[in-house]
Description:
Elements: E1 18-21, E2 27-31, E3 34-38, H1 47-52, E4 54-55, H2 59-65, E5 71-73, H3 79-82, H4 85-92, E6 95-98, H5 100-109, E7 116-118, E8 128-132, E9 135-141, E10 166-167, E11 177-183, E12 186-191, H6 198-201, E13 208-212, H7 222-230, E14 234-238, H8 259-269, E15 274-276, E16 283-285
Parallel strand pairs: 3-5, 5-6, 6-7, 12-13, 13-14, 14-15
Antiparallel strand pairs: 1-2, 1-16, 2-3, 4-10, 8-9, 9-11, 11-12
Helix pairs in contact: 7-8
The protein binds zinc ion.
Amino acid sequence: MIAEPFAPRSLAPGGVVRVQWLGTAGFAIEHAGTVVLIDPYLTRASLRRCLLDRLVPDAVAIARHAPRADAIIAGHTHFDHALDIPAIALRTGATVLGSRSAVALCRASGVPLARVRDIEPAPGGEPVVAEVGPFHLRFVPSAHSRLLLGRVPFPGDISDCDQIPRRAGRYRCGAVFAVEIRVAGRLLVHLGSAELVEAGLGRTEPDLLLLCVAGWTASRDFPERVARALSPRAVLFSHWDNFFLPLERPAVALPAVQGARLAERLARASRDVKLGVLPLLGEVWI
Length: 286
Ligand SMILES: [Zn+2]
């Protein structure tokens, strides 16, 4: 176990923002009837399917676990972040916010372009911001963990997106974003890969950091850099679960994830930070 599970009301007894973990780096964040999804990956194809087949979103899992969305954010476009985004957008009518690779995926899947927004800034430009109901979103260019023998898996952009469905390896990484989410006076930050680019982040002291665990040991001094750059009040660990297993089963940690060591180093590098996990589909309020 990486850390003890957060009880739903453990971070703020009067919390008004609901944060539900969808497995991997996926979250549903809801306030006052508006729902923002980040990196929702509900299909959780088996390892065999990922190796052998073109990946098709699981419509039943999507209908069950992502029934509503006003906006869907793609932090990057690896399959375990982006596979389900076009299908959820088509089903819910949500707007998609993502890289040019995410835009290409949505276009090829038939999502109306009026509901797809490219959040890559112009070279040298400021991070893109967006409003979704009561949510204020800011997309800070970030980086992906070099978790595959010192390299980013499936690097590059998706530009040749003429064929859907496609194999797992053709979901190239695309641009990577850290996402700042301001709503109801709270600040959440989502890091969907275990790497960060300090320059754009500022010491924002988020009320809750949604932190990817997978591949963190490949990023030098990762826990200390996270603590120094962000100074979060609470950290909810994500992307530590074996996502080749279905959502209905209890989460099983990925091999060699070393979550306890990450938690220990984060706690040592921070002051009074609360660290926790959620069960699959569990929720916490802030
Ligand atoms: Zn990735």
